[in-house]
Design a protein that fits this description.
Strand content: 25-35%
Keywords: ATP-binding, Nucleotide-binding, Transport
Oligomer: single chain
Shape: globular
CATH topology of the largest domain: Rossmann fold
CATH superfamily of the largest domain: P-loop containing nucleotide triphosphate hydrolases
Family: Belongs to the ABC transporter superfamily.
CATH architecture of the largest domain: 3-Layer(aba) Sandwich
Strand order of the largest sheet: 5-6-7-3-8-9
Distance between the termini: 37 Å
Helix content: 25-40%
Number of domains: 2
GO molecular function, one term: ATP binding
CATH class of the largest domain: Alpha Beta
Number of strands: 9
InterPro entries: AAA+_ATPase, ABC_transporter-like_ATP-bd, ABC_transporter-like_CS, ABC_transporter_ATP-bind, P-loop_NTPase
Radius of gyration: 18 Å
Pfam families: ABC_tran (PF00005)
């Protein structure tokens, strides 16, 4: 039996602006199950990030219903149900990498010995052993983003929300981090929500791909991936991968034809 972790029903979100109301999400219905890796893809302004922010209680819907681990998003935030990785690494330059990772643990009041143990464990998870005493400016962009992921993993939430974490990185680094993220997901069994603009990235990483239409953001297609969970980069050359990528592309085109 699959266990629903995030459930959205008829979700709407309208922002009030100086130029009048802007509907960012309309009638979004989606279930994310425990252990899913779900990518959200669509054109700029389609509501991908907005939906992720609703899950994280950073935005509040104006209609419909959403639960996270059976709770409201606000309750889920208070129970530390998720970690959030932003597009920019957002590391404090005056803190070491270990110090950055410790920050949420300090805020949450974890004992110092447990902070040290958790930092050690997550640095191993993201292949940054030995870099805890470095400062962000001493690390490459890819390493900084891995440190940001480690910070989100530090308090061991079941859900990891990632908003285009590799969007600013070059393709070679991005491929490497995609491989590492899949390995991390396999080791931790987290439920991951991942926003991307890249079709190959979405297809390579995901068990489920949510294709969104232009504003107001609606779901144009939900694709259950037929690919095996073990995915070397070479899988991108297979007919199965190409077929999924084609369906994503068709979903993006179809989304543009909505009224």
């Amino acid at each position: 039996m699959t266990e629903p972790v995030i459930t959205a029903e008829k979700l709407d979100l309208t922002f009030q602006t100086n130029d009048g109301p802007v509907q960012a999400l309309r009638d979004v219905n989606l279930t994310i199950n425990k252990g899913d890796f779900v990518s959200f893809i669509g054109p700029s302004g389609c509501g991908k990030t907005t939906f992720l922010r609703v899950i994280a209680a950073l935005e509040h819907p104006t209609g419909g219903h959403i639960t996270v681990n059976g709770m409201t998003p606000d309750e889920a935030r208070q129970s530390r149900a998720y970690g959030y990785v932003f597009q920019a690494a957002g590391l404090y330059p005056w803190r070491t990498i270990a110090g950055n990772i410790k920050l949420p643990l300090e805020i949450m009041g974890f004992p110092k010995a447990e902070q040290e143990e958790r930092v050690k464990n997550v640095l191993q998870l993201v292949d940054l052993e030995g870099f805890g005493k470095k400062y962000p400016w001493q690390l490459s962009g890819g390493m900084q983003q891995r440190a940001s992921i480690a910070r989100a993993l530090a308090f061991d939430a079941d859900i990891l929300l990632m908003d285009e974490p590799f969007g600013a990185l070059d393709e070679i680094v991005r491929d490497h981090l995609n491989e590492q993220l899949l390995a991390l997901w396999a080791r931790t069994q987290k439920t991951i929500g991942f926003v991307t603009h890249s079709i190959p990235e979405a297809v390579y990483l995901s068990t489920k791909i949510v294709v969104m239409s232009p504003r107001p953001g609606r779901i144009a297609d939900v694709i259950e991936s037929p690919l095996p969970r073990e995915r070397p980069l070479e899988i991108r050359d297979t007919p199965e991968f190409i077929a999924v990528a084609h369906r994503v592309r068709e979903g993006l085109r179809a989304g543009h034809s909505y009224d």
